């Protein structure tokens, strides 16, 4: 089955072609980072307009790269949520229109299921069951995964998602958007121990997260530094290092708890923040004594992309799942609501 995947949940237009027998044939991605940088964050209306501009040329490009034509397609999968409603509607409308014109099935895919299954595109994919840590700009969740659609939420953030906390902390210190990579870049030059931030909610049992207080602590440290006459690059580096270390160790501690609680031996880490090198190092150190295998998607598939949507859609389309002609998207969509295969 050859599936066209369309991802437009936020500020990246991702298109891909995936075949269940031949694997990933082609994928392209256009990022709107330069468009939104001037505003310090994603502007939903601008994101939607840019998706409209990019989507059809990118679809033509993936067909050319794969040496395919539309008549080769068996189905289309698109991101139906969660995400920005306007951006989602661009992808959904395009997918539905093309599916109607070409006479093929179409299916709306859960964005986070796409991230969760992205490591399946690698040469050595994880086997079910496993625990998944989903970390992105909008989500921080620990999920027990027994199969596709068989998800039990173990814990999530009660306030800011981890990616959101990175971006907001960076913005408070006057760093460029997106803030996550900026924090990570500066953290590499930080002085260990100049600042020490607490590991939120790690002093109590459970698998819930909270990053709002940590963000406030970083802001107070920055304000204190500025008031003391030190608003230097090194001050930013030191605060970035302390902030990032607190975040990644918190995530690693909760992952270790989840592995022990479930008895699982496989952990999948997915979403944009999964590309963070410090997080990968912390997980390796924290999980080294419990015989746990950790799986990631390749770096280009950690962030939003069409390949993960094409793959996730293909798994469901193969068992007969598809949508009608109604265009429907969801800004919020709990992953536990998905139908098991």
UniProtKB/TrEMBL annotation:
Its cofactor is Fe(2+). It holds the Pfam family TsaD. Its EC number is 2.3.1.234. It is found in: Cytoplasm. Binds 1 Fe(2+) ion per subunit. InterPro entries: ATPase_NBD (IPR043129), Gcp-like_dom (IPR000905), KAE1/TsaD (IPR017861), TsaD (IPR022450). SUPFAM superfamilies: Actin-like ATPase domain. Keywords: Acyltransferase, Cytoplasm, Iron, Metal-binding, Transferase, tRNA processing. It catalyses: L-threonylcarbamoyladenylate + adenosine(37) in tRNA = N(6)-L-threonylcarbamoyladenosine(37) in tRNA + AMP + H(+). Residues 24-311 form the Gcp-like domain. Fe cation binds at residues 111, 115, 304. Belongs to the KAE1 / TsaD family. Required for the formation of a threonylcarbamoyl group on adenosine at position 37 (t(6)A37) in tRNAs that read codons beginning with adenine. Is involved in the transfer of the threonylcarbamoyl moiety of threonylcarbamoyl-AMP (TC-AMP) to the N6 group of A37, together with TsaE and TsaB. TsaD likely plays a direct catalytic role in this reaction. NCBIfam families: gcp_kae1, T6A_TsaD_YgjD. This is tRNA N6-adenosine threonylcarbamoyltransferase. It comes from Candidatus Pseudomonas adelgestsugas. The gene is tsaD.
């Amino acid at each position: 089955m050859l599936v066209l995947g369309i991802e437009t949940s936020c500020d990246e237009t991702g298109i891909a072609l995936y075949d269940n027998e031949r694997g990933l044939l082609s994928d392209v991605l256009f990022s709107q980072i330069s468009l939104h940088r001037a505003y310090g964050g994603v502007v939903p209306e601008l994101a939607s307009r840019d998706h409209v501009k990019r989507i059809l040329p990118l679809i033509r490009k993936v067909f050319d790269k794969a040496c395919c034509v539309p008549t080769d397609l068996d189905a289309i999968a698109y991101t139906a949520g969660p995400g920005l409603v306007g951006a989602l509607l661009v992808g959904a409308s395009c997918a539905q229109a093309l599916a109607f014109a070409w006479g093929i099935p179409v299916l709306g895919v859960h964005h986070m299921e796409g991230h969760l299954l992205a490591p399946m595109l690698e040469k050595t994919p994880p086997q079910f069951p496993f625990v998944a840590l989903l970390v992105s700009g909008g989500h921080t969740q620990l999920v027990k995964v027994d199969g596709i659609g068989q998800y039990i939420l173990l814990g999530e953030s009660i306030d800011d998602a981890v990616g959101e906390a990175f971006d907001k902390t960076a913005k408070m210190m006057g760093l460029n958007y997106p803030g996550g990579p900026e924090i990570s870049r500066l953290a590499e030059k930080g002085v260990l121990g100049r600042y020490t931030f607490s590991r939120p909610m790690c002093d109590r049992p459970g698998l819930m997260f909270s990053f709002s207080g940590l963000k406030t602590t970083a802001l107070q440290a920055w304000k204190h530094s500025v008031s003391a006459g030190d608003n230097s690059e090194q001050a930013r580096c030191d605060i970035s290092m302390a902030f990032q270390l607190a975040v990644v160790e918190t995530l690693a501690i909760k992952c270790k708890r989840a592995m022990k609680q479930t008895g699982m031996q496989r952990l999948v880490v997915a979403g944009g923040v999964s590309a963070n090198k410090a997080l990968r190092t912390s997980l390796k150190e924290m999980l080294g004594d419990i015989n746990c295998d950790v799986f990631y998607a390749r770096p280009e598939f950690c962030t939003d992309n069409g390949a993960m949507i094409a793959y996730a859609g293909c798994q469901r389309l193969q068992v007969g799942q598809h949508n009608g002609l109604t265009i429907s998207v969801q800004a919020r969509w709990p992953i536990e609501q998905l139908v098991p295969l």
